[in-house]
Structure formats: structure tokens, C-alpha cells
Amino acid sequence: MKAEEESVGVFAKALEAAKRLESVQAIPSLLIPQVQTVPRLRESAARVQASLLLVYSPRFQTYEKYRVFGRNETKAYCTVEAILLDVRTGIVRKTSVVSEDFDMKRGDDDTNFAETVRKAQAQALGRSLLRVATDMVAFLDSAP
User: Fold this and answer.
1) In terms of CB atoms within 10 Å, which end of the chain has fewer, N or C?
2) Over the stretch 3-57, which tens digit does the pLDDT of each residue have?
3) What is the mean pLDDT of the chain?
């Protein structure tokens, strides 16, 4: 959880680099609808007075290699799909799909191998989100 929170924090910081953005804030999970449709997401963004909404969805695929001698290894792939939505009009201004991977061996401080897998997923997510942020910042800075 901590690694994922750090990834999202780095993501928000990277988005703040856009010259045209006044501020970047996360919508509290209490305001995010269970059934996520564009109209409901726009309504949630309007409640926090946002003019743009960046929605992303990560997907993970992991592969594990168990070793008799040596440390178990994992490779995590993360694909993030993202859309930048104009809250007032509902128009999708930009889309982005990026994939990143991360290799990791089980560490001494990992309680079990599942923790190692989650850490690798968090690292792959962080890399993917950073690429999405870079893509969105470039779009926002070049848009008329």
C-alpha cells in the first residue's frame, strides 16, 4: 500500500509540472461512484470543482519463477489506460495507453513471495503512471 501511495504521489507531482494546471488533487474515494460511467465521474469531478478529470485504469500481469536454490523471482507488467476528460463538456481531450515492467527477486525483508510480487507491481505501476503524466503534461503544455 505504501509503495502504491508513493507512486500516486509521484504521479501527482509530475502532473503539477504542467504550466496550464492550477492545482492537482485526488478525488476522495468516498466521492467515486461504484459504477464508474463518464456521467457519474463528471459529477464527482464537479463536486470538487475540477475543470479537467484524469481517469486511469491499471491492469497487471505477473510471472513468477520459483527456484530451489536461490531467491524466487517475479516480473510484473502494468498497463495503464488513461483519459483526460473535460468535466463541463464531457469531451475526452486526450487518451494514453502505456505499459511498463519490473523484475524483482524476493528480499530478506519480504514476509512472503506474495509481498515481493506486490512490490514489483507497485514499481511497474509507478513507472507507468510517470509515463502517463509525462504524456499528459506534454499535451497540456502544447494545447492552444
Assistant:
1) C
2) 667 777 888 889 999 988 889 988 888 999 999 999 999 999 999 999 999 999 9
3) 87
C-alpha cell at 144: 492552444
Cell 502494468 belongs to 78
Give dist(CA 123, CA 102) in Å, integer.
Answer: 6
| Amino acid making up residue 125 | L
d(CA 84, CA 90): 10
Give the strand order in the sheet containing 73-86.
52-65, 73-86, 92-105
Give how far the C-alpha of residue 141 lies from the chain's centroid of Cα atoms, to the nearest Å. Answer: 20
Distances from the Cα of 36 to the Cα of 32, 42, 125, 142, angstroms = 8, 10, 21, 29
3-class DSSP state of 100: strand
Instruction: With a cut of 70, say whether residue 68 has pLDDT above it.
Output: no
Query: Per-residue pLDDT for 112 more than 90?
Result: no
